[in-house]
Amino acid sequence: MAFWTGATVLGLTGALLLWFIFLRLWLLARQKQRNRTLQRWRPLLMSSLYQQPEGLPPLSRFDLPHMFELWNHLYDSLDDEARNSLSWMAGQVHMPAAVSRMLRRKDFYACHLAIRTAGNLRLASAWDALRELLASGSPALSIAAARALTQIDTLRAMPLLMHSLIGRTDWHPGAVTEIFHIAGAGQVVPNLLQAILDAPVDKTWQLIRQLAEIAPDETQLIVSSVFTRPDADVKLLNTCLDVLNTPEELEKVRLLTRHDNWHVRVHAAKALGRLGAREDGALLENMLGDGQWWVRYRAAQALSRLPGMNTGELLHIKDTQTDRDARDMLHQVMAEQALRESDLAAQHG
Amino acid sequence: MAEQILRIDSALGHSAGPVPADLAEGLASDNAPLVLQHDSVFASLPPPPPAPGPDFNWGVALDSFQGTLTDAVPLLQWFFLLYFIALNGGYLLLNLASLFMIRTYLREQDAASPYLNSGKHEIPISIIMIAGNDVAAAVARVHAMLQLDYSEFEVIIVNDGSYEPVLKALVREFSLAPFPEAYRERLPGKHVKAVHASTLYPGLRLLDKESGGRADALNVALNCARYPLFCIMDHDFILQRDSLSKMGRVFQNKPTVVAACASVGVANGCTLHGGYMAGIGLPRAWPALFQIIEDLRNVRFARMFWSRLNAMLITTRVFGVFHKETVIAAGGFRTDALNEDMELVARIHRLLRRENKHYHIAYVPDALCWADAAENWKLLKLQCMNRQVSLAQALEMNRQLLLGRGGGAVGWLGFPFIFLFEVMVPWLEVLGYLIMTLLWLSGLISFQALWTFLLAVIGLGVMHSTSALLMDEMTLRTNRKLSHALKLFAVALLENLGYRQLTAFWRVIGTVRMRGQVRCANSLSAPDSNTRQITA
Q1: Which of B320, B339, B444, B446 is CA-nearest to residue B389?
Q2: Residue B503 lies in a domain
Q3: Is residue B30 pLDDT above 70, yes or no?
Q4: For residue range A164-211, what is the model confidence (pLDDT) as tens digits?
Q5: Is residue B384 part of a domain?
Q6: Could you tell me if residue A90 is inside a domain?
Q7: Which of A8, A109, A172 sits opposite B116 (nearest CB)?
Q8: Which residues of B touch A2 (CB under 8 A)?
Q9: One domain, residues B222 and B298
């Protein structure tokens, strides 16, 4: 057995070496093919931006992925007028038919490229295939499909997108925000507001953050309703405190500075620092004695940011503190403020 | 029947032998059995020569022993052969499974990169650096850190009682001024003498503390860290500008991640630009070349598999990003651990499993961090010894995890695998070669049997090493140049003809020596003694 094990593994090692060399050669060949495709199609695509070229060469099967890559790259970096020229040229070389074929392929890269191209071409015939891909196990394929669907028909895509947004946890928030920007706030907000109402509690805070990114003013109604809920989730409260941008809810924020959970107190202190009035100074001074370091830190920062607060006054507050922790914290925050100011002065001078 | 008593002095050595006939004659007149007791009366008697018992035949015993050994020879051969097959086959299967996982990971990252590069949703990170004793290197390293491609981070340099000129150089270079930090001691640590903050670079602080070792320095830095994640930058780490964002992404994508680790590649032969990795090269020294293959073979791919099962334990140096509150809740870094990171990861598993928490320790397969590998055999020997002992210690400190109730994949798969195929490997490997050679020398197996065994064992090792190289080619493609890749292929072949056996031997030696040293250190009850450095 030992002999056969040894002989077999040495034989396999030889095969591995051959495979290794084959992989390198294949990569080399692919790189050459890519260079040839780019050399042939880049001038044609560029000239199509100014005039409609005549006598376009046929798009070969080997050119497809590299040509799509180039086309999408140009499309994403150009303005609307130039994009129309690119779309015209895509029609001339029968790209839509190739995209439909590629969408059905199992190969990840080919499929991803086809989804991108279908979206950029506004290819309505690819709707059903893209809808299927929206449910793909791969987050990259599904988010790309969501983007393409939005590009093709925003109105129809929004309910589908919201449904997926609630159900999935693997979509990157940056990608979702980008899709929302493509769709426009007018289309997104009503759908997103409805989704916030429909979503489970553990998902609501994420949707509120998304809403705040695309339409910050629209969040205030939701924030107001969350503050009145006695059983509001901590994460939800924290999110609402973060996205709050009007002083109308300040009274509720002041109440939240006494919340049992210290994370909520931290966010309430931050909100007071952003929106608070001069009379919130006393409340923040009390928070300087909190048992949690982070509450003391944010309260001290908030205090330093209150309207009309200056270094002299902060120094006075610091000296009147009987609690050593409160004094130390104010001292630290004042030093941080001084460092920031000196940094700003260095940048400007 | 009355009992006759024969007293014999113990120094004469009679207690083990039969009673001489002339002494026994006349005393045991009534055929009563003789019972030997010590007595000074017989002290003057000359010691009798030891003689075999009347019913003991050495020849028969030797024959019997040889018979048993002959019977055991096939068993021994099978045991070692199967062990080597299990070892190399096990790793090969892990690597194969990881191949698909890494490919999936890479293609997802590649496809998502346009959204991920915005940096808008990145979680802030505190970078902890321990200032070494090299002035120029410390300054250059901090400069490099400040240019990292990450949206929000702070750099905390810890001067752990190091060389005074380093502190002065850092203060001068980064315009560091005393800062009134409201220090809170969440983790115990040595006294912090002063905190400095930079007036030029916001987010750069320096903690000047009494010397307490790496773990103590990290604990003190954690007390001052402001951000939810932290990463440890060893003084010899070299990163890419986007290394931190790739690590941070894991935490963004999965909120249950409490730690993320990436392998540390071999920096020897690579080119740097501005303190960052600019081009991958190959070292000239053989020890460093062998370490590249060793890393690929046993670490880089296997970790991906264990990470998927949430059973990853650290066996070598890593570049890690941790969730600060989880580490603090786990008690921070242990000052008595030889490798704090290894021990911490095992402890996080143990404690979070015990609390039944939903957590994940992730692995980032991209090559993100490099450090110089040992280029001479003496240093390599020390590293091998150190690694072996620290791993054994980390596992021992968290032995409750092994096959424990609620141990999950890490307790039932990861831990036993690491124990069998990392901790025990050097012992069994050395023992295997030794026993097979002894059996051949004693004529119990033929030379043909010996070389067939070696062919199988070394062949398995060669296949394991070369397959790891091929997997790298199919996924990460660390070596862009064909000449580099082919050179490494040759190194993968040679690695199994001496290097692997030598490192196994060193690891055994290391365990024996360090056990002695640790026991000695413990007996001297010096809890703060820095046991990181060992001497050959």
Answers
A1: B339
A2: yes
A3: no
A4: 999 988 888 888 988 999 999 899 999 999 999 888 888 899 899 999
A5: yes
A6: no
A7: A172
A8: 77, 81, 449, 452-453, 455-456
A9: no
